[in-house]
Design goal:
This protein is an alpha/beta fold. The protein has helices at 10-20, 25-35, 46-59, 73-81, 95-108, 121-130, 149-159, 185-199, and strands spanning 63-67, 87-92, 114-118, 137-142, 160-168, 203-209, 215-220. A seven-stranded mixed sheet has the order 3-2-1-4-5-7-6, sandwiched between helices. Helix 3 (46-59) packs parallel to helix 4 (73-81), helix 4 (73-81) runs parallel beside helix 5 and helix 6 packs parallel to helix 7. The longest helix has 15 residues, at 185-199. It is globular, with a radius of gyration of 17 Å. The model has no long low-confidence stretch (mean pLDDT 97). The structure holds S-adenosylmethionine and calcium ion. Residues 44, 143, 169-170 line the site of calcium ion. Calcium ion binds at residues 44, 143, 169-170.
Length: 221
């Protein structure tokens, strides 16, 4: 399990983890199991999971949307931080990945808090809006295909309550967003969305943290 942070030195990152990481055996086990998969770099870092768990507690978030589950580290971090009665709607297209996640939700005793919806997340979010769940959610974590980030943004704006929080993962895209030579599609989408959110009056308290691969936090007005 090699983890690091590309925006700070290895020594600083090690210092942060050594002093503050409170990951338990279950979280460590999930990282180890995922570490053997070729796509292991898709998993969020443990300090990021811990940070998002803290946000869930600070907001007392009980209605959460996650877009991009993979093997479940972020959903586990947030679902375990929720109090009883909370629900996390987990969106992904992969049965194989989410089967791994499901095993950890069960072991953590939070499976009953998670509403897994398999299918393209845009369709799932449109379905939630059609079900009349607009304005009901406290928190949305967006970590799936970057091409659809703008579509996720618009739909999450509808689904969040006033004061609800959106968190976009990988918003710095390994630093490529500031490389003028990079005009790739995903880089351009992330750049344009960041600029749009930065000036969008529908959100307040916008913050971009160089945590993990960059987290953009935006609170709905
Ligand atoms: N948050 C996860 C974690 O903590 O490990 C990592 C998520 S991984 C970066 C992205 C996930 O998005 C993958 O599991 C993939 O199957 C899923 N995904 C990709 N395209 C999707 C789509 N259109 N709709 C829903 N899920 C999608
Ligand atoms: Ca990610």
């Amino acid at each position: 399990m090699s983890i690091g942070n590309r925006y700070i030195s290895a020594e600083l990152y090690e210092y942060i983890l050594a002093n503050t990481l409170r990951e338990d055996d279950l979280g460590r086990d999930l990282r180890e199991v995922t570490g053997h998969m070729p796509e292991s770099n898709m998993q969020i870092s443990p300090d990021q999971g811990q940070f998002m768990g803290m946000l869930v507690k600070l907001m007392d978030a009980t209605r959460i949307i996650e877009i991009g589950v993979f093997t479940g580290y972020s959903s586990l971090s947030m679902a375990r931080a929720m109090r009883d009665g909370g629900t996390l709607v987990a969106c992904d297209i992969s049965v194989d990945y989410t089967d791994v996640a499901r095993g950890y939700w069960e072991r953590a005793g939070v499976a009953d808090r998670i509403d897994l919806r398999l299918g393209p997340a845009i369709e799932t979010l449109d379905g939630l809006i059609r079900e009349g769940k607009g304005g009901e959610f406290d928190l949305a974590f967006i970590d799936a295909d970057k091409e659809n980030y703008p579509g996720y943004y618009e739909r999450c704006l509808s689904l969040l309550r006033s004061g609800g929080l959106m968190i976009f993962d990988n918003i710095l895209w390994s630093g490529r967003v500031v490389d003028p030579a990079d005009s790739g599609r995903q880089t351009s989408i992330l750049r344009d969305l960041t600029a749009e959110i930065g000036r969008d009056g529908r959100v307040v308290d916008v913050t971009l943290l160089p945590v993990a691969d960059g987290l953009l936090l935006a609170r709905k007005a």
